[in-house]
Amino acid sequence: QVQLVESGGGTVQAGGSLRLSCAVSGSIVSVRTMGWYRQAPGKERELVATITTGGGLQYGEFVKGRFIISRDIVKNTVYLQMNSLKPEDTAVYYCWRSVTTWGQGTQVTVSE
Predict the structure, then answer these.
(1) What percent of the chain shows pLDDT beyond 90?
(2) Which contiguous run of DSSP H or E holds residue 110?
(3) In terms of DSSP bridges, do strands 2-7 and 18-26 run parallel, antiparallel, or are they unpaired?
(4) pLDDT in tens, 90-103
């Protein structure tokens, strides 16, 4: 009923930047907390960042200070600005909408 579609992933060199977008569509009745998670092969999915309906922010310790999450409620879109990327940031990044809606994921690869 509600769909999340990520875009903006790709391959960049270490130190580069990417901007991920997550477009929300479908039968949207309410504004909810949203965020980004990531998962690398052989590792558990981990929190990257979340943003509440009022703009409250929460970041994972590995990305705090380098990534910025934001949202445009009118456009039903959430963004993740990723700066100073490191090879260990390589993962599939998933958009999430409270409580149990997930996007298909977008691959981010950071080369040495």
Answers:
(1) 90
(2) strand 106-111
(3) antiparallel
(4) 999 999 999 999 99
